[in-house]
Design goal:
heterodimer; A: 358 residues; alpha+beta; Rossmann fold; OB fold (Dihydrolipoamide Acetyltransferase, E2P); 2 domains; 6-stranded mixed sheet; 5-stranded antiparallel sheet; 20 strands; elongated; B: 568 residues; mainly alpha; MetI-like fold; two-stranded parallel sheet; 24 helices; 74% helix
Chain lengths: 358, 568
């Protein structure tokens, strides 16, 4: 059996997991179900508990309350070395006193495999990550990207049941990051391994994960496919954390057959989306679904004043004051888009289909 | 600010080089030269070495020195390993005791404790008397070479403890976690990951212990173990005379082994960067002790603590005891020994000489140390590294060898006005102490200057300050803490140095404390006063150590402010 032969992959079930460092609660009531073979991401700001959750699955850190199942095995109380969970550390954690080969062979030696088999599997792993030529180097003689590959090879060579990646790209420079994330994704697909990827970078999560979990303050905020989370955030944190969002406080009122959003700052807007009428609602819309228009052109235009503008390359971003409410508007950049200036009174229009009411 | 040196720094560097040339290179070179010289004809010969290795006593001495140094490393490792492991791996209160353990033995020169150790652990010492009385057998802790090993390993184990603890705590926790993740745990994990990563620190400490023990003269002399290399060198020169080639041959062997040990330690430390190269979790994984483990750990720590403190306990008892022989404790207690010491003009002279010599030597050290640090770190002078190496090489020159070298080189040099040879003038003792302790002061000054941001100097120069004025008004004030710490370290260790001074003391009036203790300890009646003098030495070194720690800590805090203010 070679490394890339599809192995039986196992799912991960996390049930009501609580974890604290002394008095500080780090994880609270996490429930999560990751089916076999999925590429899953934990996304959250630093201190959100995403790394702690990953480490808990690998068996590191304080003992949690709740249950962690891998396949149908309860691993909650197992020590790290009995879990068969492969983890790639953020700093790669390559042992500097061993060569690349020795590093990769380590886990196999710990499993007391025969020398011949170790040799063969190490060779395959090296080939898989394209480092056969560097087999006898020490980690200190490798570049960041190469070290990352060794760390990956060292982990997958033992054929773990699941693969955990702790911010695997954070120590690489921008170009390499894009290449490595594609490589990791294709490797994952070849191996068919259930994989969890921790990151604070939403682009990384969006481009690789089939589903992701957004965490904040130790609480699971929302789980779903990246696009679903972006388009339909369930709360303010998710809306603001994924991309830029304009958020307006107000209430939803019934008006005839339709609904209107009445902002606390004074303007009203007819709604095209479904929502329940009530107070204390949030209107969420994205800067790129919001447009500037001439202040006297259309009826459904709101009036605002441009406070600042930033050139972002493909887009130009305007900060507009709408009755005291600050909103962002991204307009596609064209050569002649200099017609709106700071201080101008402008019309603001939003795509009412692309709004969310929370 | 790496400009090549101007005239000022150039001549400063040259002056320092001249000093090191005259008082380090030439004397040691002379010793090596004489070792290869035919006594009659003065021609080059290897016959002295052939004689050396054909003489039974020397063969034995060589093997003994080697054996004692190796065994001391082994025994010191046995003390240090569990302690280093406890402090770095577990959360428990004993860590503070262990840290203190790292300092306590060093505040007493080994030879001072040697006699006290004999009274506690010797064949007729307290411990064996009790053992014999209750169980009918004795353990020869202090018999012959065992005594030297015991005293030296108790004294020097902190070197291993400090280095090993530092190395262990530099290992990133992810190193260990990744191994666990791949299925490794327990002893196997320790053996395959933790220990290899800590190895450089251990080897560096162990090499230092080997070097120190191999070169030590005072301890074997006081324990009356003469069939070792350093005592043989001393005895040949002091009894047969300055022209006996054997003393020189032994010196060469001592220097070669010291250089080897130093080289090993440098090599080991070169690979050390890998323990700190990878950042992340930080620090070895710590865990809480279970209650039975706690009991066990404290038992081990208390046992080692007792052993480590025994020279101090013994010396205190000896200095206050009336008669102490063939009994577990002294018959009665008195302050008579202290009265004797403080009423005796010779012993007062010992103390004042010590303060004078050590004070002068330490002053020379910090002046040269600061100058070398500045030249190495702040100028582009071509030979700057050489000054550093040269000054550091003094570590590898045993006191006996330096003493012999001075005797041989400066015996014919008459000091004008004083009217006696430089080799028997008291100033030569100061110079010997200064050369021997220069590496310590140099390290302290280097560390201090490394913490001073170059931009602080550039700011001064930008505002019109000259190079000299910048050094005076910015560099030296900012380095002052480190310089002071270097002074105190040099002072405290110079105050109890015996191996070079014992060769160079030409009359009792010129002798320092260490020599006085040695003279007192030679006779049974002198042991009490000798111990009282020893206590004086311990107090001097103890206070010095305390202040240098205090100063270093204060300096660290002050510098933290400086560097925080200069963060990019």
């Amino acid at each position: 059996m070679s490394l890339t032969d599809q192995q039986q992959s196992l799912g991960i079930e996390i049930e009501d997991l609580h974890l604290s460092f002394g008095e500080t609660k780090v994880l609270e009531g996490i429930n999560l179900s990751i089916p076999p073979g999925e590429f899953f991401a934990f996304l959250g700001p630093s201190g959100s508990g995403k790394s702690t959750l990953l480490r808990a699955i690998a068996g590191f850190g304080p003992d949690p309350r709740g249950r962690i199942m891998i396949g149908d095995r309860d691993v909650t109380r197992l020590p790290p070395w009995k879990r068969d969970v492969g983890m790639v550390f953020q700093n790669y954690a390559l042992w500097p006193h061993m060569t690349v080969t020795k590093n990769i062979a380590f886990g196999l030696e710990e499993r007391r495999l025969k020398q011949a088999e170790i040799k063969q599997r190490v060779g395959e792993a090296l080939e898989l990550v394209g480092l056969t030529d560097l087999a006898d180097r020490r980690p200190s003689a490798l570049s960041g990207g190469q070290q990352q590959r060794v760390a990956l090879a060292r982990t997958i060579v033992v054929r773990p049941k699941v693969l955990l990646l702790d911010e695997p790209l954070s120590n690489l420079d921008a170009n390499l990051r894009v290449k490595m994330r594609r490589d990791i994704l294709s490797l994952q697909q070849q191996l068919g391994l259930t994989t969890i990827f921790v990151t604070h970078d939403q682009e990384e999560a969006n481009t690789t994960a089939s589903r992701m979990a957004v965490l904040d303050k130790g609480i699971l905020q929302q789980v779903g496919a990246p696009m679903a989370l972006y388009d339909a955030p369930q709360n303010r944190f998710v809306a603001e954390f994924l991309g830029h969002a304009n958020i307006v406080e107000g209430s939803v009122l019934k008006q005839g057959a339709g609904l209107v959003f009445s902002a606390d700052s004074g303007f009203e807007l007819p709604l095209a989306v479904n929502a329940e009428a009530g107070d204390n609602k949030l209107l969420v819309f994205r800067p790129q679904n919001t447009f500037l228009c001439d202040s006297d052109s259309q009826l459904d235009c709101l009036k605002g004043v441009i406070e600042y503008q930033e050139f972002l390359g493909s887009t130009r971003r305007y900060g507009v004051n709408l009755n005291g409410q600050h909103i962002l508007i991204d307009m596609k950049h064209t050569v002649d888009d200099a017609r709106y200036q700071v201080g101008d009174t402008v019309g603001v229009r939003m795509d009412t289909n692309d709004t969310v009411i929370l | 600010m790496m400009q090549s040196g101007n005239m000022g720094t150039r001549s400063l560097a040259f002056a320092i080089f001249l000093f090191l040339l005259v008082f380090l290179l030439i004397p040691v070179g002379k010793v090596v030269f004489v070792a290869f010289q035919d006594v009659q004809t003065g021609a080059f010969t290897l016959v002295n070495f052939v004689d050396f290795f054909n003489t039974k006593l020397f063969q034995e001495s060589f093997l003994n020195s080697f054996y004692v140094a190796s065994m001391s490393v082994l025994v010191a490792s046995i003390f240090a390993l569990p302690l280093a492991y406890f402090t770095t791996r577990f959360n428990f209160g004993g860590a503070i005791i262990i840290q203190t353990l790292g300092i306590v033995p060093l505040i007493m020169p080994p030879f001072v404790g040697a006699v006290a150790m004999q009274l506690l652990f010797g064949d007729n010492g307290s411990f064996n008397l009790l053992l014999d009385e209750h169980f009918g057998f004795t353990i020869p802790f202090m018999r012959g070479l065992n005594g030297v090993i015991m005293v030296e390993s108790i004294h020097y184990f902190p070197f291993i403890l400090i280095n090993l603890s530092a190395a262990l705590s530099n290992i990133d926790r992810s190193m260990e976690e990744s191994a666990q993740n791949l299925g490794s745990n327990g002893i196997r994990l320790f053996r395959r990951i933790v220990f290899p990563l800590a190895m450089p620190g251990y080897v560096a400490g162990a090499a230092l212990v080997f070097l120190k023990v191999f070169d030590d003269l005072g301890t074997p002399l006081l324990l009356n173990v003469n069939n070792m290399l350093a005592p043989q060198a001393y005895l040949r020169i002091s009894s047969i005379g300055i022209s006996d080639p054997m003393g020189y041959v032994i010196s060469v062997i001592l220097v070669v082994f010291s250089l080897l040990a130093l080289w090993t330690s440098t090599l080991a430390l070169k690979g050390r960067d890998y323990s700190t190269a990878q950042k992340g979790g930080g620090g070895l994984m710590k865990r809480d002790l279970r209650s039975w483990e706690k009991v066990g750990s404290y038992a081990v720590i208390l046992l080692i603590l007792f052993l480590v403190l025994s020279p101090h306990i013994g010396l205190t008892l000896l200095s206050f005891g009336t008669i102490w022989s063939y009994s577990p404790l002294p018959d009665a207690y008195t302050v008579a020994h202290y009265a004797e010491v403080f009423n005796n003009s010779t012993s007062i002279k010992y103390i004042s000489n010590t303060l004078l010599y050590a004070g002068l030597a330490a002053s020379i050290d910090v002046v040269i140390g600061t100058a070398i640090a500045y030249i190495v770190l702040r100028t582009g002078l071509k030979a700057r590294k050489m000054l550093d190496y040269l000054a550091t090489a003094a570590l590898a020159v045993p006191g006996v060898v330096l003493g012999i070298g001075y005797l041989r080189t400066f015996n014919d040099f008459q000091v004008p006005i004083v009217g006696k040879p430089l080799a028997s003038w008291w100033v030569i003792i100061v110079i010997a102490l200064a050369i021997r302790r220069l590496p310590y002061a140099l390290r302290a000054c280097m560390a201090a200057l490394q913490q001073v941001s170059v931009s602080l100097e550039e700011a001064a120069q930008n505002l019109g300050s000259t190079r000299f004025s910048t050094v005076k008004r910015i560099v030296i004030p900012l380095m002052s803490g480190g310089i002071l710490a270097g002074f105190v370290t040099s002072f405290a260790t110079a105050a109890v140095e015996l191996s070079a001074t014992i060769m160079l003391v030409s009359s009792d009036v010129d002798a320092p404390l260490a020599y006085g203790i040695y003279v007192f300890m030679q006779s049974a009646a002198g042991r009490g006063p000798g111990a009282a003098l020893g206590m004086v030495a311990v107090v001097i070194v103890g206070l010095g150590t305390y202040f240098s720690h205090h100063i270093i800590e204060k300096h660290k805090r002050a510098n933290a402010l400086v560097s925080a203010g200069n963060a990019p």
